[in-house]
Amino acid sequence: MSLRGLGLDLRCRCIETESRKIGKLIESVELFPPSSHCKDTEIIATLKGTGKEICLDTSAPWVKKVIEKILANQKP
Amino acid sequence: MSLRGLGLDLRCRCIETESRKIGKLIESVELFPPSSHCKDTEIIATLKGTGKEICLDTSAPWVKKVIEKILANQKP
To answer: Which strands form A42-47's sheet, in the order they lie side by side?
Structure first.
């Protein structure tokens, strides 16, 4: 189990966010609501193939659209 | 890196989904769009404290509301 799984994160995970529209490269998206350790929601995408994790801009319209598409059972 | 990170999942992750409204227990939510290995979107919540992972019903209104709240920078 990761430190994250144990609730041991002590600060925000994201320092900077990806501004390019990388929806097509996304394999999965993880959402972290505000918590005692980070006051803002964080969104981390895992990329296809490499498994690389990238922070997304929670206020970017394209990010919201990607999540809406996934919820509508479509590929981003 | 997990098998998931290497893109080695060969089928859907979720067999059954949680029907109770467990929004308050959620630490994070991961969204998996449809892929060649699973035709439907899957949503897996990680619970506070235990880190236990639970599949959510992608068509449940409360699940969509939880995600909308997180996107709006609120706790679910």
So the answer is: A53-56, A42-47, A26-32, B26-32, B42-47, B53-56
CA B28 – CA A18 distance, rounded (Å)? 20
- Hey, what are A31's tokens? 């959402």
Cα–Cα distance for residue pair B5/B9, rounded to 1 Å? 9
Per-residue pLDDT tens digits for B45-54: 999 999 999 9
CB contact under 8 A, A30 and B32: no
For B2-47, the pLDDT digits (tens) are: 445 444 557 899 999 998 999 999 999 999 999 988 999 999 999 9
CA distance B75 to chain A (A): 5
